[in-house]
Write a structure and sequence with these properties.
The structure is a single chain. This protein is about 20% helix and about 35% strand. The protein is an alpha/beta fold and about 425 residues long. It folds into 3 domains: about 1-130 and about 265-335, FAD/NAD(P)-binding domain (3-Layer(bba) Sandwich); about 130-260, FAD/NAD(P)-binding domain (3-Layer(bba) Sandwich), CATH 3.50.50.60; about 335-425, Sandwich (Immunoglobulin-like).
Length: about 425
């Protein structure tokens, strides 16, 4: 057995099942136990830690621990707590089915397990978009990988996937892999981004591209992939504000590898299987300020809820979900009236989507701006009244906005609360 994996009977009753043992799931399971609940942590991989295990670069833990850690170091701090506190864990286990009554069928080495829970926490993370998902034009020779898969091959398996590389999309994984490939001796010809700005963190643009003299080609798309048995080149084309190709702007870059960093999709198959409602703006479940979905007893946190850019915020969210799930399992939290929280002018998405009217504690809010905004004010209003505003020197779509809403600031008997942005739009 690995990492405190627990031998279980074929039928088991627990208070809270946490599905997924990445940073959100680890934090959630620990919080359930700290709150006095009985958790069970289920992970389909053979080890705890999730995506952090392949993220060997530093930059993790600045908010959580006040120091820079690598991904495995960050994960290990929570894994040690899981072992010390003897949190029950099932590894190499796949949830095959889930019911609205919190009954799970799980396949693992022991066979099929039937598990009955009082609450379930989704911490299943997200997956990468592929070439097919974005209808990438051109042929499909070998040498086309998602950036995350290339990262796993390099950092966990020890393979270099290519020598001459173009990266499509400037998400954080793509930026980090531009640096990683360069450090391994590959030539990164360009990072290509269809948007007029990078979709990754500003610090990653500086540290991963500028420090390595890797060109970032914004407002540019891939028009074609060339090659037979292996990628030989890609054709690029400039695009206008509506992402339409600009005639005469095409160029060809030779390469043997194309990495895709074109967005992440929350893993929502299990929430969908029990009819949980989704937010079309985030792609994940819509939740209230206790992180409870619209089906009682189901909670969501981390990248399955909405794609994050900082793992420390994932941990914070997982911790909150664990506390709330434990309270629900013990009958101390239930469905209540909630007011909508809406994304207004300049805001792409908000989480949570509903505010529980019984809330007596400050509510963490996560928002994303639609565009680059300088000298920005993020404003929360209700029934035409400004509840609060926060100033930001610059807002980027790639960087999460985190704020809190005081319970005294809004009227539980009033109308919906709306988040908007004012400022100078680029």
């Amino acid at each position: 057995m690995k990492n405190n994996e627990t031998t279980m009977p074929f039928f088991q009753e627990v208070e809270v099942v946490v599905i997924g043992a990445g940073p959100a799931g680890l934090a959630a399971a620990l919080s359930v136990q700290k709150e006095g609940g009985r958790p069970l942590l289920i992970e389909r991989s053979e080890e705890l830690g999730g995506i952090l295990n392949q993220c060997i670069h530093n930059g993790f833990g600045l908010h959580e621990f006040g120091e820079e850690l690598t991904g495995p170091e960050y994960a290990q701090r929570f894994i040690e707590q899981i072992k010390t506190q003897r949190v029950p864990v099932l590894l190499n286990a796949m949830v095959l089915s889930l019911t609205a009554d919190h009954e799970l069928t799980v396949a693992c080495a022991a066979g099929l397990l039937q598990i009955k829970a009082k609450a379930v926490v989704f911490a299943t993370g997200c997956r990468e978009r592929t070439a097919g998902a974005i209808a990438l034009p051109g042929v499909r020779p070998s040498g086309i990988y998602t950036a995350g898969f290339a990262q796993k091959m390099a950092n966990e398996e020890g393979y270099l996937v290519g020598r001459e590389v173009v990266i499509y999309g400037s998400g954080d994984i793509g930026l980090i892999m531009a640096r990683r490939m360069s450090l391994e001796g590959a030539k990164v010809r360009a990072v290509v981004e269809i948007m007029p700005h990078s979709s990754g963190l500003a610090r990653n643009v500086a540290q991963c591209l500028e420090d390595f003299d890797i060109p970032l080609k914004c407002s540019t798309a891939i028009a074609a992939i060339h090659g037979h048995t292996r990628v030989e080149a890609v054709s690029l084309v400039r695009v206008d504000e509506q992402r339409r190709p600009i005639p005469g702007s095409q160029e060809e870059i030779s390469c043997d590898t194309l990495l895709l960093s074109v967005g992440l999709i929350p893993e929502i198959e299990l929430p969908l299987s029990v009819g949980i409602g989704l937010d079309p703006k985030t792609g994940g479940p819509a939740v209230d300020s206790a992180l409870m979905c619209d089906q009682p007893g189901f909670f969501s946190c981390g990248n399955v809820l909405h794609v994050h850019d900082v793992v420390d915020f994932v941990t914070k969210e997982g911790r909150q979900a664990g506390v709330m799930a434990a309270r629900y399992a013990k009958g101390r939290l239930g469905p209540v009236k909630a007011l909508p929280l809406q994304a207004g002018e300049g805001i792409a998405s908000v989480v949570p989507q509903r505010l529980r009217c019984e809330t007596q504690e400050p509510i963490p809010l996560f928002l994303r701006a639609k565009n680059v905004v300088r000298g920005a004010k993020v404003i929360l209003t209700q029934d035409g009244r400004r509840l609060q505003e926060t100033y930001h020197r610059i807002l980027l779509p790639s960087e999460m906005i985190q704020t809190t809403l005081s319970p005294e600031a809004w009227n539980p008997q009033g109308g919906a609360i709306e988040a908007t942005v004012e400022g100078n739009h680029d």
